Amino acid sequence: EEGHADFTHQDNMPKKGSIRSAVAPGYQYTAPVLQGVVSALDPNKQSPLNTNAALAFSSTASPYKPNGKLFDMSAIKTPLPTNKWWLNLVIEQGIDPIHPYPYVVKCLANASTVGFPKFQATATAMTSNMVADWQIGDSTGALTQRLVTAYDALGVQVAWTGSNSNTKMAARFYKGLPFITYEMTNMAPVLSTIHAILKVEQLGLTVNSYGANSAGNATKLAKEMADHPSLTQVTLNDGSQWLLVTKPTIQWKQTGNSQLTPATSTTPFTGILQMAHLGDNPSSNVNVLQAYAGTYPTEGSVTYAKILNKQGVGRSADIVYFYKTNTDGGGDTSMIYSTRSVPTSMQLLTFMLPHHVDLLTNSSILSPGLSGYRSTKGHLTAVAGNIITYSQPLDGTQSFEGQHAMTASDKESVQKQLYLDVAVSINITAPDPYFFGKGIAKIARLYQIAQELGDTQSASTLKDKLIGYMKPWLVTRTNSDPLVYDTTWGGVVSTAGLADPSADFGQGRYNDHHFHYGYHLYAGAVLAKYDINAFAPLREPLSQLLRDYANPSYADSQFPFMRHFDPYDGHSWAAGLFTFADGRNQESTGEAINAYYSAYLYALALGLQDTADFYEIVLNMEATSGRRYWHPTLAQAKAQYIAPFTHNAVGILWASKVDYATFFGANPEFIYGIQMIPFTPATRLLLAADWVKEAWCPDGTSCSGGMKPAAESANNNGWAQFLYTALSVVDRKMALANVVKCNPDDGNTLTNVLHWIATSGQQQVG
């Protein structure tokens, strides 16, 4: 279960009613029990990866400090997050937007803005605008400072205060909520819009619209309706309509063309304000939304449940999103969560992404639902419930070896090439963690293949070479760009990256750690599997690198929980402590998958089965989102993106933008290839046969925009070899004919390519 330790210290919990009160003590510990779910791994306990040994790397403080004017350092538990989806709130001046789908939000010192982005596309990108449709603030100017005061597994809490200590505002932002909610204390609220206000209409609430299902409920429903928030529908001159929800009631009056204030002198106002865009069908959507008005989450957690069907096919694990809401009676969950359904009037209304909808189990998709809401990942689907569960399928073939055994002829060709690759001096000269990591992982792949072939002589040579390269980085730390532990943010970074934010791909600011250290962990996992004694001196530093990017424990005081992984989106965010108007991003899904595959293998090699199970679940979540959003079928691309951006490959996925390009170029072979590397048995998770066939030749004739022309134009380089290797999933013969003509990438060998085709490509008959 994810979510506990990120919130305010339990022993220093503010009392109920405080602006910073966001969690009932013990809630995160009991959430799985209330759900009837057993976690694959208890994240509230120390991980066995943490042996309480001394740090393996020397300690130093980052020159890039957290902004105390943006973080409430007295409330936020350290180590601080570095890659969360809402990081724009606390980087630089904190004024760039965050993207709680389907909205775009800014948190200024004196106000908050909310926009409903409109999406547009070209052939190379799908983008969204950053219009701030509304600004929410205090008409007296009493709000002057805002801070991030808490965060959890799914969202973040922001609080506004000012010179008048009695005037406060707070909001908890979560992705996938139809309502943006503000809690106000002693405020004179004012709502300003950049558009002209055409109409302000106070809505009445009817029993029918509230969901009455029997005459026997009339008395109960009448009381609930009396307690229900007041509803106001506002029409703007851009054609949009919004629903405003307040409790207690505010009668809004229009001031000028573009401002709303309370009609009567009932200020200061203490209560809640909610805002919801009414999508593309306001008359229908408003009827759905008003039934759920007034309920909002105060905390979110995620449970990664124990794996079902441990052996064979049909393996899966439930992923459970569990929201505590303002209607929970101050933390008494005995009634609300005794079952997986709750009274309609107390349910939370949420949106699910396409990959959730594909896999939902217990949750009720609304019918009629809500229409006209989307994110960069496609249309959003409305679901009712405080607890939402989907079943994550697990590919049962993941191991050190490939999907199927090599034939005798395959073994012969792979062994022949292995002799050649071992004979060539494999020298790693790269000084940085990324390219050095690719180098040692390349040697480790050869070592693994030699072990599979029973080639003990080659295995011994490769093992010695692997240890010889790894020890200066991890044991003696005599390499030219040594790794150090950053005491400011809680992570392992390169010396060059710490001194220069642009060095080592932004490594010192926590860019791409899962990409970089995933290669190191793969090398360590293979070594641990075959020679645990030789591995022993490397164990502690490697375990600390793993805890840096994929720490499975909230009890760890040195590294944050799962630095990169976003459990709502189902994938990682690579971008670290850099601000982007488009939000977080990730380019290489292949290297993200390698990171969690390596973590899984590492835990297996050390005999840590529960930890391995957890990483296997995360690995498959990353792969599911990778296939859906970076490797969509053409049908999926047309459904979730906007024409003319209908590619079946994405280069960079942002929170609010999709690029058919990479950070290092727009060549199609780069866009396809970066989503595949490195080729290991886990790469097969991304390369579904139907997708490879369609991506190779999308139109079936000229193959325009497909992998085939991309591979042919790449002039037999390493990128071409990646694409031909992928082709082996559907056409082994053509793949073999072409990969041998290509020069391997610096992190690859022809031995690995031939082995991958033999064990993960199209299976040879006979």
From TrEMBL:
This is glucan endo-1,3-beta-D-glucosidase. Residues 73-392 form the Glycosyl hydrolase family 81 N-terminal domain. One of its GO terms (biological process) is cell wall organization. It is an enzyme of class 3 (hydrolase). Gene3D superfamilies: Golgi alpha-mannosidase II, domain 4, Immunoglobulin FC, subunit C. GO terms for molecular function: endo-1,3(4)-beta-glucanase activity; glucan endo-1,3-beta-D-glucosidase activity. Its EC number is 3.2.1.39. The keyword Disulfide bond does not apply. The keyword Transmembrane helix does not apply. Residues 415-741 form the Glycosyl hydrolase family 81 C-terminal domain. Keywords: Carbohydrate metabolism, Cell wall biogenesis/degradation, Glycosidase, Hydrolase, Polysaccharide degradation. It comes from the Eukaryota. Belongs to the glycosyl hydrolase 81 family. InterPro entries: Endo-beta-glucanase, GH81_C, GH81_N. It catalyses: Hydrolysis of (1->3)-beta-D-glucosidic linkages in (1->3)-beta-D-glucans.
